Amino acid sequence: QVRLVESGGGLVQPGGSLRLSCAASGITLDYYVMGWFRQAPGKEREGVSCIRNRDGSTYYGDSVKGRFTISRDNTENTMYLQMNSLKPEDTAVYYCATGVGHCALAVDSAGEYDMNYWGKGTLVTVSS
Asked: How far, CA to CA in Å, does 70 sit from each of 1, 41, 87, 99?
């Protein structure tokens, strides 16, 4: 049984940082891509970032480029999202997901394509 569990969310002030984690079990991720997606209240889901486990190549949505960094530890089956220079508009529930596909399509489609398994999400609130 595939399971993805996000952690690391919380309340942070604008300009601050948080690191999210996504622990995967029940799946060997070597040939998968893993992504982060978010959904703010009253808004549609948005693709944030994706990483291809095979070679570590990454892809970012325009709204987070230069501020967020995705990484993974294949030995631990864990993916991370380092979020810096956080803004109030980054407030959302952040979900991790994985699938066999392409990062660009996954992020640009906000996870409609190429993501097969999803976590339950972790809330990030950016507020003073």
From this structure: 25, 23, 18, 16
8 Å CB contact between 80 and 20: yes
- One-character DSSP codes across 3-66: EEEEE--EEE-TT--EEEEEEEESS--TT-EEEEEEE-TTS--EEEEEEETTT--EEE-TTTTT
Those residues with Cβ within 8 angstroms of residue 22's Cβ, 6 or more apart along the chain or in another chain? 4, 5, 6, 7, 34, 36, 78, 79, 80, 81, 96, 119
Residues 6+ apart with CB under 8 A from 77: 23, 24, 25, 27, 29
In order along the chain (128 residues), what is the average pLDDT of each group of 10 residues? 96 98 89 94 96 94 97 91 98 96 92 93 97
